[in-house]
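Request: Show me your protein:
***
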Amino acid sequence: MSLNNYESDNDDDDEDEENLLFKDFQPIERRGNKKINNNSNNNNNNKNKNNNNSNKNINNNNINKNNNNKNFISKFSIKNNNTLKRIKTIVLQKKNLKNLIIIILSLFFIFFLFYIIITYSNNNKIYNYSNNNNKKIINNKNDIINQYCTNFLNNYNNNNNNNNDNKKEDEEEEEEEKCSFDLNSPDYACTPISKNRAMNFNYSCDYGNEDINWNKPIVSVIVPFFNTDPQQFNECMESILIRQSFKSIEVILIDDGSTNDKSIKSYREWLKLEPIRFRVIVNPFNLGLPHSRNIGVYNSHGDYIFFFDSDDILEPTALEKMFWKLNTSSHIEFTKGFLAGFGHSQYIWLKGFEQGDQFLTENQVTISIMYKRSMFGNKLKINKSSTTNSNNNNKIQTDEYSGGSDEYFYYPKELLEFQYDSNIKDGMEDWDFHLKCASAGYWGETIPEILEWYRRKDKKTMEKNWKNTLTFKRERFLNDLKLKYSNLYNIGGGGGNNNNDQYKGFPNPIRNENEDSFKIPFNFVSDHGGSSYEIKNPLKKKSPRILLILPWLNTGGADKFNLNLCKQLVEKGWEITILTTIESDNKWLSRFQLYTPDIFLFNEKFLSYSSYPSFLNYLIDSRKIDVLFISNSQFGYYLLPFIKSNIDKKKHNNNNNNNNYNNNNNNNNNNNNNNNNNNNNNNNNNNNNNNNNNNNNNNNNNNDLIIVDYNHMEEDYWRNGGHPRQSIGMSQFLDLHLVSSNHLKNWMLKKSNQIIDTNKILVNYINVDMNEFKKSESSRYEIRKLYDIAEKEIVILYAARLTNQKKPLEACEIIKQLKESLLNNEHIENHQNHQNQLFKVLFVGDGYLKSKVELYVKQNGLSDVIKLLGDVPTQDMKSIISACDIVFLPSEFEGVSMIFYESMSVGLVPVGSNVGGQSELVTPDCGFLVDIYDGDGNDIDPLEFTDSFVQILKQLINNPKKITSMASKCKKRIKSKFQLHKMGDDIISNFCNTIKKKNNQQEQQQEQQQQQKQQSHQLNDNSGLFNQEFLIQTIEYLKLTNQFEKKKNDFDQLYSLQSELDNLKRELKKLEQKQSQK
């Protein structure tokens, strides 16, 4: 029997295939753990031999062996009458009826206890995960955060830092090291379902939640199945049904004539585990992949169709991202992400639909694609099985289909206007389908993230299952495609390698920027597939949750603070969602994934700016966010009026719903009084249940989150102060301002003309993890040996982005003068050991001034002193710092430098500019700061500025003992005031105090709000319109800014290339002159 393109690892040669084919073929229902095979139970075969003794035998042979407890009960059945007679004799001889009663009760208790144990274990067979349909878990958002804050503040006030440090070190040693997937150094063992994969977010969902209509899922996942290895299948299902962030899905498994008992058993276990969202269709024999997928589409209910292989794995947010991509993109019909190949071969595949006409010569993507349902034909009604009751969305329908029904397997092809070619049974049917889409004018876009893990098999298995991959068959298949889709191959010159003339017949969808301009939907609504509804994805909540709005996930001091904050929050019981607002390569993505999988990166291939407001509101609602945290995100600030307005609107609606419910409830109570006592009791019970459910839902939807921002430093050169200036302007929408220094706090108070309450701006220093940054003698030795540095030689560290802010060229000038001064110093001449080795500088960093720094070092003969290391990986910086003695940073402006925190923790003496809040960290006994402005606020003379640094560095180099003494004081200062756990505790305590304060204010203002209800409602409506218009204009501005930045980057690249070309010309000219002189 042909495998028809399925990858099967469970072929049993010893089994009779034909007998197994129909061995277990019984009609299976679509949902639930019931079987339609209703064979009568013949478990009561033993007859009572003596009717007179039936009571004494305790119905021994009439025990029901049905369900999962039959083995257990049979073990504990009384096997013979002799035992009972012996017990009876003892009891009668002693004439003690009490003993008999105790024995009977004991047996009953034991039976009951084991019944509970066995039942519980059967319901938790797979991954210890269970869904109890009848159990509704109360999920009160406000109770969770309030209870957490009460406990945290009590512990915070009685905190003993030293004891906590010791405990944390012990805990870190015991914890297993978690992994994340890094594109630059991929670990292919770190799959989305790996035990070592960091998964610090609860993606479970309450099936009793009335916000979701489980009979009408949003996404239908179609999974063809044939003898799939049980372990691989379980991994696939875990990644879809358990670990996915998007819950409004149905998984339709099409068993295409499987013959392996273990494989069949594996999906039957999932039927028991997921009775609502998992369905099975059993083909009577092997019909092939294309036919099975068509069957799945026909029997699906979702507005979006996602195809997936039964042995592959999905990243946790894959379905959610693909759904949002399609829901906000009218110009495309399908989407997918990049993939990681694993198994027999390992690789990263970063190609997709953007490859366009390359599909004409080779398939570029796998089948793991999400489609709009409408693409398969308007005749295919979304509510095919129209069993949904709009008045009772929460009742689960259990439509049953016979396994041998013609309606079931031989779907009406006329209803599928667009479908797979069922005649292709030897592979590459997906390639054919992609070209079929292109031929009809349908095409898609690729989300530029790894969303899929594609399991690769060995070559022998592939050739066995996919015969069309064989060379001679592939050529024949390609010729068939050219004939079948001649409109694609003939237009433009033929062949897929024509770079000069693009195929005019191949679709190239482009988003119409004007389509979504000047319209920002408040609600997150899906309107595809002929229906419109608000998107709901309420996730269960057991811990406080925070949403971080960040610009990107790149390297830098502010980004390291964000990373450290994530670490602290997770260690202290928080769950984190991250939303970025600037398109970037996000080099630190894998590091943030160590603390949360719930990360959404801004990219125009994912969501446009116009879709961001509704998506942000969706995240707040879905995750039940407690704290919204903005750090250095310009767009995040622009979103604040919109967010605040939407929160107030929801709160107003919830209050109205509560009032309406209370009125209805009073009417019901009055009606109940007229009923008889029995009915009255029943109705009261129902009312109590309704009260609980209604209060629960109101609490879930009442998003009384607090909005907090964090700022590092003012930037007077940009937007009149940078992000802190934006923070001042948006203060009315913020509940709390956090800043990195008292200097910045005072700057903001002064800039705002004291309008902001001083208690609303709090200082939280960024601090450092002393367990991460501590001196390593082995690293010190290795780095010094690598760069040919003597053991006693003083090493200076310069580590920063090579931009004007960090003054790298000025740093080179200071080093040049320092070298000249030391060489001319008589003190140095008396120490022959230092004649050739004065000092060394490790120059770490990258940026647009890199080429100028390299040229300066070369032209001034500093190559023997300055070692240009370039952009050093973050994990190597600890070793670099350990090799140094002094950290040097003559910045133009700073908040409080992260490199100073890290270097002082190791024991380096800081020497830098006295700007920002640097003096709050660096005191005279542990470092040196040089004034950059005079007493009147004017810039100090550059020569004086340079000379001050030269004298300080010269003093330290000539006095190693002073370096040692100050280094010790640096470490003591960090340990006493600036440890990382203190930063985490302080920030969370500020969160909790703000929440507590806001709750008290809301209680006090409740009566006033009711009195001014009509006026405030009208005001809210007007302000809502204003906020919406403000956001619309902002987004239009950002679009123009984004286009400008792209053109500016192109110009900068051209300018850089031109500079490098000019340098090469100068070098070439010098070589020519030298050659001519010879």
